[in-house]
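User: quick one
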Amino acid sequence: MRTAFEIARDVRAGASSAEVEMERSLSAIKARNDELNVFLYIDEEGALALARRVDERVARGEDVGALAGVPIALKDNLCQTGVPTTAGSRILEGWRPPYNATVVELIEQSGAIVMGKTNMDEFAMGSSTENSAFGPTKNPLDPSRVPGGSSGGSAAAVAAEMTPISIGSDTGGSIRQPAALCGIVGVKPTYGLVSRYGLIAFASSLDQIGPFAKNVTDAALLLEVIAGHDPRDSTSLPEPAPSLVAHVEDGVKGQRIGLVRELYDGADPHVVASVQAAAEALREAGAVIQELSVPEFRLGLSAYYLIGPAEASSNLARYDGVRYGLRVGADDVTAMNEATRTAGFGAEVKRRIMLGTYALSAGYYDAYYGQALKVRTLMIDAFANAYQKVDLLLGATTPSVAFNFGSKTSDPIAMYLSDVYTIPTNLAGDAAISVPFGTGEAGLPVGVQLLGPGRSEARLFAAARVLEVAGGSS
Amino acid sequence: MSEVLRREDVAKVARLARLILSEAELDLFTEQLGQVLEHAKDIAALELEGVVATAHPFGLINVVREDALEPSLARDAVLDAAPDAEDGRFAVPRIMGEAP
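Assistant: Done. Structure below.
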């Protein structure tokens, strides 16, 4: 598969055409989509028409943009005008949004072509795509295993070489964990770096949109395109998109990197070995590796599974059968709300709505939600303390390689533990990247995670690139 | 059966969240949600007197825009995406009961 960088370069120079690139992408999708269930919606004709328009603009000598003619897939929780958008839920089946998410507009302005919407855990709640109302996505590297989640479809699209890049969202690890399980690069940007306007909300203080790519440079290129201030998102950082691609080859010489015990404790031995090998590779490239312990990270899982559901219970109150999506008829409005929500939501979404409702209810608020918010403060302070000693942190992305279908579906806690190493970053609003490094059980890829403070993306990409080169992946 | 969460607690939150549960679902969710709350005991038990709560990273301040007229979404486009509409409005079933 050609990289997004190469495709855009060649389309801009007239050495390739957007139409040829799109046809290549569509034929890769045709070859495996029935088997893998990656896409919930594909607009073949529309994508080819947009590609031809890009080619016409190139022929006229226009500057088409940084991602000219690059096919890109969108997680199905991003609104695109007139395009079916489900968030993996029956409750939104058939809904066509009347507006574009800001990231969709930025992607279109960059010359990239959105050709479809990818499968996901319902409302981004899950770590395997098994919670999608439209059936699970299979891992392209081993279809008997999950691709991770919740952005499993977007990760699989890139891993199966259907598109060179794709977009996901990460609330507790939903970009980094599937990137690790599919052997690709995934980035959770600093909270507020990418506008959430048009992203179907799950937990608003944690949700962040980010890129998937086969390599570090493409991920940086896509993040440059989608980042930047947006007046339509009041949590958007008040500054222009940072320069990232220019820093990919900066290296790690002199960087202090903390190898954090709590970010690999309990992982499979292969995963631990990969993290240690990554530390060694960074050391050889000139970084100073320091072993650290951050005990507060152990509290992240519990805090996350109170804060996330609490916010979700509020955000998902809007699915009441009135304004969009499913309505199940009944005699009065309350019975209609109940019948619609009962029929429209899957089991995991119901669990989280009820958990959040409980955590926020009178008598329990202080013990659960209030306490979780205080733990969030401890987490932020613990990160700040660590970043006084080191520049970046290193650990595993997830405790194991891709697991088998059905192995965690009956035990929510076991599934939640997939995100134990990714959650702290979301609670702190910081940035992190997962990059493939080494292999584990059955030769499947292991993802290692680099974590940095807010706005540290350029340094994270540079360190991830060092691992990419050392790991020999490109 | 969980110690922290009773069956009637789950029935109550389901009602508050406008969800109807079967008897079997009530049993299953009581057990599963109880396990999550059991796990959360690690933070429920912490002594955090005096720690300030964080509801949002980066201590957001309120953001306001200029109070100027701007076009909003086209009404027809929004209503077309709704399950039922009538006379330029969302239509819903009866919201009031019979007079007592």
